[in-house]
Design a protein that fits this description.
With 598 residues, the protein is mainly alpha-helical. The protein has 27 helices and eight strands. The chain has three domains: 102 residues, no CATH class; 256 residues, no CATH class; 115 residues, no CATH class. It has a six-stranded mixed β-sheet with strand order 5-4-3-6-8-7.
């Protein structure tokens, strides 16, 4: 029977019909021929240009940005000290034993620093491999199941989210953990996606075992517990739990054990007490909230307010994804969708139950969530209903709102509409709106039936964020200003001589010794270094009284510099009565450098 191309009736407009492909903002129901014409209306350069802007954003975030404290400073300083001591076996921070994490991430970063030199950009070279590997793993997954659903656009959606950019470009152990858990989860899916596919299962399970070991040696047991729970729940959902008894599982378990146990014994040998501290304090006590120093105590619903930020600029498409999942019966018909839902749910639930919470903890949930948004929120054809049209427009509205936010933010800063909240920025910082202007100038970026029409504004948003995080936009406008004093540290490092000493007052700044290329002296600072201080009492480098401070200044062979917060300068530093003069170095709203006098 020949299909009629006459306009559908009002009843047909509200019926789910795959023949009615992507609706434009002006036209809600279109035929297949119109759909093809609409796709051709999107310029062919749009997606390649979007990919170029996205790549540029990652390069800026990775290699043209100073460290933010304390996280990036910590995970760069530990490897630097390994290199400086010529000892990669012992984990130390500020020369104190530091047992919060296993050493794999430190070793990877130390290898890059050894190869390229002690630079902040060099410490992030491994993260470029994380970006590429993550993109490859996600592409491998979606091309195995969603070949007909424009996998390139789905992958672009996932890679252009704030969560993916943060997870792959900020130097954290969570960044490497996200990679290892994604590799483990992807390999487990490929190994068990069908009971009938025995060939290759052993290879996929071996890959999962190796990735899980690397994950455990990066951050801990979550690297194997969460992918394992995902696999079990997914197989239960599919009523295929018996697949776990496949003969191929035994070699994988043996491989995991053979790799993991000797590794932990090696770490314990050179870091006595590590296993006890790591298992009982950094795992059990941190999760249960009984840790002696319990940080980041947040309510159960904490990730409910964090997740929308990590899913930008596609956050509002999450609503459409939810509706399409239900309308298309995707959880009951698509096995990859089921797996991704379980994967994201397990990660979010686990870390929501735990007492200590940080935004970075749920980075392993970003790959499955963003793939689901791309597949069902963005790529799935519009079904012709009013509800679907509204959800699509809601997603587009959210993206447009982000585009408008950058020039508004610049005006607030430049014209000092919120003085003291947002610092005044120089005229040169107008560069942050150039990507937005480019997206608008290249023509109707927020209209069009195809998701390809939205890639350019999405990439422009991420590029503008990258510029905000870099010195390009002007030092005072850096959105990481309160945690990034790298320009000050670099100026201090350039002025230091071999015999000079640097003292950090009251404020834990692990990025400072990285840039200074020497361990700094700590004045009345413990923080997370307390464990190491207790294990090695009396170790030089910690000052607790003004008399100890004066004695160090008196005996110093070279100059002594103090690094202080401006708020502490008048209230804490001046009452010490220590002679000082301006250090002759630039400061910032959070850092003052002075020279201490005998």
């Amino acid at each position: 029977m020949k299909r009629s191309l006459s306009p559908p009736s009002a009843t047909e407009k509200n019926r789910v019909n795959p023949a009615y492909r992507f609706a434009t903002l002006d036209e809600f129901v279109i035929s297949p021929n119109t759909f093809m014409n609409n796709r051709e209306q999107v310029p062919r350069y749009r997606l390649p240009l979007s990919q170029i802007l996205l790549a540029l954003a990652f390069l800026i975030i990775l290699f043209y940005r100073g460290f933010s404290d304390p996280d990036e400073g910590r995970y760069s300083e530990i490897p630097r000290e390994m290199i400086a001591r010529g000892d990669w076996k012992t984990m130390r921070l500020m020369d104190y034993l530091y047992y919060e994490k296993p050493p794999v991430a430190y070793w990877i970063t130390a290898a890059a620093l050894s190869l390229f030199g002690i630079h902040d950009w060099a410490a992030r070279v491994p993260l470029l491999l994380v970006v590429l590997s993550m993109a490859g793993l996600m592409g491998w997954l979606i091309r195995s199941e969603w070949k007909q659903a424009r996998p390139g656009l789905i992958l672009f959606t996932a890679c252009s989210t704030a969560g993916f950019a943060a997870g792959c470009s900020i130097l954290l152990t969570d960044s490497f953990l996200m990679l290892w858990m994604t590799a483990t989860s992807a390999a487990l899916y490929r190994a068990f996606k069908s009971d009938g596919e025995q060939a290759g299962r052993m290879g996929f399970l071996a890959l999962a075992a190796v990735a899980a070991v690397l994950g455990v040696l990066t951050k801990g047991a979550v690297a194997v517990v969460l992918p394992g729970a995902t696999l079990v729940l997914w197989l239960l959902w599919e009523k295929r739990l018996r697949a776990l008894f496949s003969p191929a599982v035994i070699p994988a378990v043996l491989l995991f054990t053979v790799l993991l146990i000797p590794s932990f014994l090696f770490i314990e040998q050179w870091n006595p007490g590590f296993l006890r501290q790591f298992v009982f304090q950094e795992h059990l006590a941190r999760f249960l909230g009984t840790r002696a120093i319990q940080l980041h105590d947040e309510p159960f619903w904490f990730y409910g307010k964090v997740l929308p930020l990590l899913l930008l600029p596609w956050t509002f498409f999450l609503f459409r994804a939810g509706r399409q999942l239900k309308a298309r019966h995707a959880p009951s018909t698509d096995t990859l969708t089921r797996y991704l839902l379980v994967w994201a749910g397990v990660v979010l639930l686990f870390f929501s139950i735990g007492t200590g919470k940080l935004m970075s903890y749920i980075l392993p949930a970003i790959p499955p969530l963003t793939l689901l948004i791309g597949r069902w929120g963005l790529i799935e054809p519009q079904d012709g209903t009013v509800a679907d049209r509204r959800l699509w427009n809601t997603g587009v509205f959210g993206l447009g709102l982000l585009l408008a936010a950058f020039p508004v933010f610049w005006c607030i800063s430049y014209f000092q509409l919120l003085p003291g909240v947002i610092y005044k920025t120089p005229l040169s910082s107008l560069t942050i709106v150039i990507p937005i202007a480019l997206a608008v100038w290249l023509g109707r970026p927020m209209t069009g039936a195809s998701p390809a029409a939205l890639t350019l504004p999405a990439a422009s948003v991420l590029l503008s964020v990258a510029l905000l995080m870099s010195p390009i936009a002007g030092r005072d406008m850096n959105v990481l200003l309160h945690s990034n004093s790298s320009i000050v540290y670099k100026s201090l490092a350039a002025a230091l001589k071999p015999d000079d000493t640097v003292i950090a007052f009251w404020d834990y700044r692990p990025a400072l010794p990285f840039y200074a290329r020497r361990v700094t002296v700590l004045y009345q600072i413990k923080n997370e270094l307390e464990f190491g201080m207790q294990r090695e009492p009396g170790r030089p480098g910690e000052l607790t009284t003004p008399d100890e401070l004066r004695e160090l200044i008196r005996k110093a062979k070279g100059r002594v510099y103090g690094v202080i917060r401006p708020g502490d300068f008048d209230t804490k530093f001046k009452p010490l009565g220590i002679g000082h003069e301006p250090g002759g170095l630039p400061g910032d709203p959070d850092t003052v450098v002075v020279r201490l006098l005998n």
